[in-house]
Amino acid sequence: MRASIQDSHFLLRRFHSALGLIPLGAFLVFHLWENSQSRFGPEHYNAQVERIQQLNYLLIIELVVIALPLLLHAGYGLVIIGSGSAEPLRYRYARNWLYWLQRLSGIAIVAFLALHLGLTRFAGLLDPQIDTNLFRYMQQSLTQPVTFALYLLGLWLSVFHLANGLATAAISWGLTTSAAAQRRFGWFCLGFGLLLGALGTHGLIGFLK
């Protein structure tokens, strides 16, 4: 019985990891690239958003590829947090700190997503004019220092969560078995995270022109 529970937990952790990397991680990369189009000005950005909104079966894609994986990933993430035992003040080595920060960033990202969806998707349902000139709307929102700071924080926490999750997934999936391989791939993930964070930051700044 105990072996069966452990096997289920093992499979759920692998499923949780896969959801975070494949649909959600890929979407984060795409979304930050999409927002980086802001540097080309409002006409280019709004045209890019309109092309995406005109995709066939967009609502189904959003539900199946984004919303459902996000709910499953976040929900099981809370289970992991509840059963975790990270003690960063007692065990002050890097891997334990990263374990703790991964969980903390996940909670913060959920709060940030609620803010982001409220300011964009739900606001667009109440005022359809927002979707016709999303660049202008985001520009007005991000000129508020508090909103810009929250977006910048949410962006970098999301990037950290993905990059650190990629590094830990490589260990748990048995792709980096030696300490040297884990160190090398860790540096790769750090570089990937910095590049992705820079792309996202550039996109936020593009709205302020």
From TrEMBL:
Query: What is the protein name for this chain?
Result: Succinate dehydrogenase cytochrome b558 subunit
Q: Name one Pfam family in it.
A: Sdh_cyt
Q: Which organism is it from?
A: Thiorhodovibrio winogradskyi
* Tagged with keyword Mitochondrion: no
The entry's localization annotation reads: Membrane
InterPro entries given in the database record: SQR/QFR_C/D (IPR034804), SuccDH_FuR_B_TM-su (IPR000701)
State the function annotated in the UniProt record.
Answer: Membrane-anchoring subunit of succinate dehydrogenase (SDH).
Q: Which SUPFAM superfamilies match?
A: Fumarate reductase respiratory complex transmembrane subunits
Q: Tell me what gene encodes this.
A: sdhC_2
Ranges that cross the membrane: 12-33, 57-83, 104-126, 146-173, 185-208
Task: Could you list this entry's UniProt keywords, alphabetically sorted.
Answer: Heme, Iron, Membrane, Metal-binding, Transmembrane, Transmembrane helix
**Gene3D superfamilies named in the record:** Fumarate reductase/succinate dehydrogenase, transmembrane subunit (1.20.1300.10)
Cofactor requirement = heme
Coiled-coil blocks? none
